[in-house]
Amino acid sequence: MYAADFRNRLGSPVPESYFGSCVLSVGCFGHKAGVVSGEDGFVNAVEIISDSVGGVGTLDVEALCELYIDGTMRVEPGTQTVSIVGSNRFGLYQSDFGWGKPVSCETVSIDRNEAFSMSERRDESGGVEIGLCLKKGEMDLFIDLFQNGL
């Protein structure tokens, strides 16, 4: 699951500076674990999410809400899900509330779920910072896979 910005899809225009209840959850439901595991798992996951993000722009708010509700109703109890938190387009490192720009931005809400967060890089190079929270054994495996070329 990930969040999508719907400010530009509402009947009444909402200013770009508004940040609030115009963010909706979007889900990629119906995919079995085998699709995103194994040698091609990462590539498959990227394609699934990319296709979903591309499709969001073609749907209005009502249609997306219906898809989300239908998808969550089909998820069986105990099914493992992954959530993506944050965005590399929020401009967190450019915000200044009077005491200077942030040195580090972290999403603390991922510590209780199997989720990862995304934000833009502090140095404004166009890159992405990714935060990940896993159980120790899972993190050790992830680190090993990541260091050996994923």
UniProtKB/TrEMBL annotation:
<dbReference type="InterPro" id="IPR051504">
    <property type="entry name" value="Plant_metabolite_acyltrans"/>
</dbReference>
<keyword id="KW-0808">Transferase</keyword>
<protein>
    <submittedName>
        <fullName>(rape) hypothetical protein</fullName>
    </submittedName>
</protein>
<dbReference type="GO" id="GO:0016747">
    <property type="term" value="F:acyltransferase activity, transferring groups other than amino-acyl groups"/>
</dbReference>
<dbReference type="Pfam" id="PF02458">
    <property type="entry name" value="Transferase"/>
</dbReference>
<dbReference type="InterPro" id="IPR023213">
    <property type="entry name" value="CAT-like_dom_sf"/>
</dbReference>
<keyword id="KW-0012">Acyltransferase</keyword>
